[in-house]
Model the fold of this input.
Amino acid sequence: MDTSEIIISGDTAGIEWRLPVLRFKGSDPDAPKIHIQAALHANELPGTALVHFLCEMLRKAESAGQIRNDITIIPHANPVGAAQSHFGELQGRFDLGTRTNFNREFPLISVKERDGLVANLSRYDAVDRLKRQLMHMALGCDLVIDLHCDDESLQYAYIDDAFWPEASDLASALDMEAVLLSDGESSAFEEAVGHAWKHETAGEKKTQLPGKLSVTVELRGGRDVYPDLAKKDAEGLFKFLAKRGAIDVPVTLSPFAGPAVPLDNVEMIRAPEAGTLLFHRNLGDQVSEGDLLATIITRPGMPDGTVEVRAPQAGLILTRCSARLVRRRADLMKIACKAASKAVRKAGTLEN
Done:
């Protein structure tokens, strides 16, 4: 395993950020090249735990001569966000300087423009330099896996239609409970990588990208950072890499059995009023239309002091919020459904 650092100079005097990069070298040009990164949202750590144990497995595979092509791993992809604490709480999702989500506003380019990402980097601020260097590394690979987590959540992934159903092997290997099929219309990291591949030829847009994959994996919830879970997920990702031919190890996967639904079929359950949140249903529950999902205590002690939140249609409860004091319109749940939601959804990601 080769180790190096990318040094990103800060936007104020005397500051610099260091981004560790781990590489396992292979020599088979026909095997896929791999890019795996974790904690682009700096306070989402299940992926960092996963790659810690994955690297143990890869070092053994490297010693046995089983690494077929290069595997690049970024264990913590956001040193800028990792340094942002406010009143003792890590703020890793949004850049405090610009209020921009760290996983948005990646450049939407053609893969042929890849080298331009790192040309004249001094023109950009530290966060943009970080984003450009991450994307530059990823676009030199075939399989790009961005490890995130949700708030309280089942294990699932956002996968562009262009990679489905080929990517069902990843869903199977990681024992996912659902897949959300995205439209590739945002500037999030994995969608920006997919955009570059789809727009390789000027004036054309590919709708299928066999042999390629750019995916956001949601490794359950933010508090699901345990050794047993991390080892299980590392073993699953190792199996996926072997299945795709990046590691010379035989592996058999069962077919993915979970639901795979477009983002239009996800019901975003939001709080109609502010107050104390009482959930009546748990992650993984199958609900029917009209089922009581939650009660919000809006005026404690008053006879009319509660509001009910009910399921707009049948589906699988995929996520919940961990907060129990919520603002009006706060996201409470995602429910994966067979039919499209009646709510209007803009193209792109479900959340900011």
Summary: The chain is about 20% helix and 30% strand. Helices lie at 46-63, 79-82, 126-138, 168-173, 189-198, 227-243. The mean pLDDT is 97.
